[in-house]
Amino acid sequence: MKTSSTHSNPGKGIGAFMGRNSVPLMFIIICALFIPISGFSFNYLLNEIITRMGRNIFLILSLLIPIMAGMGLNFGMTLGAMAGQIGLILVADWQIWGIPGIILAMIVSIPISVGLGLLCGKILNMAKGREMVTGYITSYFFNGIYQMVVLYMMGSIIPILHSSIKLPRGYGIRNTVSLLNMRQSLDNLLAIRISGVKIPVLTFIIIALMCLLIVWFRRTKLGQDMRAVGQDMQVARDAGINVERTRIISIVLSTVLASFGMIIYLQNMGNLSTYSSHTQIGMFCIAALLVGGASVEKASIGNVFLGVTLFHTMFIVAPQAGAKITGDSMIGEYFRVFVSYGVITIALIMYETRKRRNKLISGRQLQLAQNEVEK
Amino acid sequence: MKRSGRVFLYRAGAVLVLFAIAAVMFVVGRGHTVFFDNKTLEYEGQSYPSVYRMVVKNKGEEVAKLNKRERGMTAWMGQNFEMEVDVILEKNGEPTTYPIKLKLPYSQDGIVLNLPAMLAGLPREAWMSEFIPSEPLGAVEEEVIPVEEELVPADI
Description:
heterodimer, A: 375 residues, mainly alpha, two-stranded antiparallel sheet, 72% helix, globular, B: 156 residues, alpha+beta, 4-stranded mixed beta sheet, 4-stranded antiparallel beta sheet, 10 strands, elongated
């Protein structure tokens, strides 16, 4: 599913194909080089990749809707992650376990993520054309508010009963909250094992439903409006579409889905780092999407799956390969972080270059047309 | 009916459905830790002694094997608790199985069941009590370090 009809390079042939898919190709080469060096068995790698796919795909899918609406990569998805974490902290304190706990955490996170999404959407509407950097900084701003809520309001204003969650001083949440009672409850239900590889069937069913929902959503009136807004805001406005409202809805949807994604992610991990789990999540989800061949203005479900597979294969093999090559596993650790940030930088540079080039071309065309009229 | 009225009804309906699901989750997902004691209990001047061995099973799976004066535990979701207790009175003795169903109090996280007293048919308050975990003595104040930027995350 393409979320925008804008094609960066409409050319055909091997050169054009390689140009369009340079980032995934680069990662395929990196993985192909690193996998044999790392020495991991095929079964181990497959097991790890499938686990990470189940853990991350839902989160990354939440990025597609804002791209469809022309708002670029939603760095503000961190807000949804915070809402999901608040839901999980409360549910852990209420001692609701297993899948009911996950469902309840999602329900609790809905109003929080809707509120945060509304605020973020309004802010992004004030900063049209600079949505990504605004979203990024907004997430830092809301991180401060999140810390205030979790560190000072929980236990004092918001009731928190259990001392296993609360700080010994009587208010605030501990650095780590155990989610042992709901750990992998979604992944283990209906899970099957094929030659030692665990496949979390229910998680993949949920992901498949989410993909179908996105495909269906794209065909609805609202989905068509978002695509129109994504292509040209002025034309969409002239066509009678409420551009601002459509953009806010896209961010709200993305934030709500991100909160669900974060809950799925954390139930797989089995514990929650209260003050750090959400900080890097946006960055890594965006990096994974870009590795899959997506760009700031175009992303598909295929990009999500390819990106998660390649990015996480690199994440698994890089430290081991680094240790084998240099004798120091930290090299591999730094390499994967370097690649994550590097791929985002390249994508942003490419986007900006393309935008300027298109502007230049349209300017020249306009000049030619004016010259024609003058003649 | 006006469109705005219809929209309001749909939204209100959606909120009600979410509340209903949340209420159901609160009940079915409430977790309890159930402790089993094979300990002698004194009640109204009478003694209910521990037995040689007790084996507690949940859904056919053995969760605790209790010799005299021992305690076992299991985790349970919901309030309708079911278990089977195999009572062995002496060494190499034949077990007698007692299927037990009971309602767990919603408000209690940890519940202690004294099995000898329960099997003797005493009233509920004699064999059921709340487990209150003791605060660790001289607990060290945990320092909270809100992490701004984690350069190399352990896992993603």
